[in-house]
Amino acid sequence: xxLDQNELxxxxxLISFPKDIVIVSHRNPDGDAIGSSLAISAYLQSLxxxxxxxxxxxxxxxxxxxxxxxxxxxxxxxxxxxxxxxKNTELIICLDFNSLERIDKMGLMVAASTAQKMMIDHHLxxxxxxxxxxxxxESSSTAEIIYEILKSLSPNSVKNPIxxxxxxxxxxxxxxxxxxxxxxxxFRIMAEMKEAGLNDTLIQELVHNSLPDKYLKLxxxxxxxxxxxxxxxxxxxxxxxxxxxxxxDIRRGDTEGIINYLMMxxxxxxxxxxxxxxxxxxxxxxxxxxxxxxxICKEHFNGGGHRNASxxxxxxxxxxxxLKIKEVFPKYIAPVEIEN
Length: 340
Hints:
This protein is α/β, with parallel strands linked by helices. It has helices at residues 5-14, 31-46, 79-88, 106-112, 142-153, 161-174, 184-195, 200-208, 214-225, 242-247, 258-263, 293-300, 318-328, and strands at 20-24, 50-55, 73-74, 91-95, 116-121, 132-135, 227-230, 235-240, 270-276, 281-287, 304-305, 309-314. It has 2 domains: 5-208, inorganic pyrophosphatase (n-terminal core); 214-337, Diaminopimelate Epimerase, Chain A, domain 1, CATH 3.10.310. The protein has 13 helices and 12 strands. The strands form 2 sheets. The protein has a 6-stranded parallel beta sheet, with helices on both faces. The protein has a 6-stranded mixed beta sheet with strand order 7-8-9-10-12-11. Helix 2 packs antiparallel against helix 6 (161-174) and helix 6 (161-174) packs across helix 8 (200-208). The radius of gyration is 20 Å and the shape is globular.
């Protein structure tokens, strides 16, 4: 990975003396958002900076074990504290998102802040709302970028067990346990992490094998009652209604990994999970091979991401979201790509 040395130098100077720093990531934070934020927070605290990690909404319970997670500020629960911290900070670091829309109402606060702003991200088409921007779209995750940044600034920092655990969590979740977005560089990083003492097996257990009992009941419901396979398009869709959310007491993180079961099928080339959340319909998409779900999310569902793993949202009804998918999907399939 090639980092922008000018931006890296500016960042190094910015953190050369202690200051108040706010670290922000996107709504519905995933493992990469949480791992990246907590890792860079731990590094900055080792340099005597005063840091606060802030998310717009709550994070999944499966990540509560992570070092520093108990100190995360959640805007939905602590709006005034969030506003005060952003208003009084000297530096805002934006991680794993490239548009202020991804942090909802917090976007207005960040935009209005006179603090210096920095973006570290790996998604396409970053918006120019920060003073410093380290954007590496070929990277697997924001955690991978931060590993390279910290390694460049302070090689010993990436041997810190707390930082290792946080960054590995970000990488393993954003690659689907190394199923997509991998590279030679990423596996070199994995080797370095193992040499530094990373207990990857333990983290895999904490992230993937610590789910609540209701998860299997929800999964069974999704596969038996909510799955639709459209063989002529090699498409699989699972949808969840608001009644499903009530019946299974679905909370943040409970739907993580369900889409992967669609991708296990030989007949499915594209899998879509559609969730009718309280205020929006959220979509998560995965694909195999050269099929770009990023294009569908960006052009029709206010989102984006990567070629084989993207997401978006829809402000109309669940039924309309499903109809929209079926309307636009055939336009993205070349005849030779259809695999029966």
